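One-letter codes give the sequence; the fold follows as tokens. Both lines appear below.
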Amino acid sequence: MEYLVTAREMKQYDEAAIKGIGIPSMVLMERAALSVLEVIKSRRGDAIRNDKILILAGYGNNGGDGLALARLLCEAGALVEVLLCGDIDKASEEWKQQKQILLNYPVKTGSILTDGEYTVLIDALLGIGLSRDITGEYAKAIRWFNGKKGWKLAIDIPSGIHSDHGRIMGTAVKADTTVALAYVKCGLCCYPGYEYAGEIIVKDIGIGKCCFNGNEPEIFRYTEDAQELLPKRSPAGNKGTFGKILIAAGSLNMAGAAILSARSAYRTGAGMVKIISSEHNRTILQTAVPEALFGTDDDLEDSLDWADACVIGPGLGVCERAKNMLSTLLHQSGLPLVIDADALNILARDSGMQKQLALQGEKGREIIITPHMGELHRLTGKSMEQLKADPVNAARAMAAALHCIVVSKDARTLICGESGRICMNTSGNSGMATAGSGDVLTGMIGGLLVQGMEAFQAAGIGAYLHGLAGDEAIRIKGEHGLMAGDIIDFIGKTIRNEG
């Protein structure tokens, strides 16, 4: 697990390190510069002695990091220039100290954009506090910087990328590498910020967990090997031990979604699967997934006594039959429940069902909903533009309103619980934007739930494993050729960590 911090959180932790623990800010700045130097040396090796390096620096502490780095690079034998941009009257005290030290080194400083050529260009212009669009001389300097050839490295975050949501604030540096100081900033993992960050390397500068003071970062992502995250299996277990999942899915001519969900539940470790579907689907389902039990709508209520968790929605349709099935699962069961696809569209149209869901969630029932942006739009009534502008708070608001876990699916899937804590999934690829991929995810989450995993964990780890399987699949299939079934085929390889 890796923390992803907001600008507000990072400023709190930085202040705690300086004022609470007593680490001087100049020491933190020196550590930041040393950590970036380490990255440059690891990449450039002995060539650093022949490097011509340009550092674009502002007058804040990010610029101060740049000035300290200029001195260290000079000591390493590089020819270094510093291009200053901004208002010197707003220079931080630490920046002034670093500038005074730098006067003792043969480092050229100026503020005129040149036609010079450089092997390495370093962005130390703006830090994490950016809150408005970049214009004027800053914008001009960034465009100049991006137009230069050479390896481009950003300190902490590329200038112009919003540190919380990754939006481009007017214009932004396009880096090849970003050295994130202490923790990865959320905006580095969100689009389009992720595309501007290049390779992200995290460096410890001495701001540890002791600086949280009880305020742990609210957003995190999984980074572990898949096997480390899965429930432990007893060698003495049987098919009942590993959980029984009931999947209400598939309408006439829509058996495929049920097949994908059932197969992915099995591949994730579920012991038994029972599919409740249209009678018309019996033959194709029993042929495609012979391991699964089959039942029709009439078997739904009795099957609730058999199951350990339920899934509803994939390929279900929005007819009266589907609505009655969702009503049954909401009113006549307290089992953990995953609501996906068509069941979400039914829910969006029925305020009474929403109230029932919220009531059960408030009482402690584990309920997970898995909307993509279109379904979240229908559930919330907010426009797509509003949702994409602030996806984190949109997911939080939905989780709080319905007292459930929200898996908000987009280029970066967000898993949000009622507490407001968020897991951001950063595994996966564009090839997974294909029909049926969501049905696979739903089955995987259900498969983890029946093995006893807590709902928030099951949703977050399910999304992570789903993305990892997709990443494995494209090595063979390619992003253009990936199909949802391919993701299932690579779940086992992902779990065995055979990448």
Q: What stands out?
A: DSSP finds 20 helices and 19 strands in the chain.
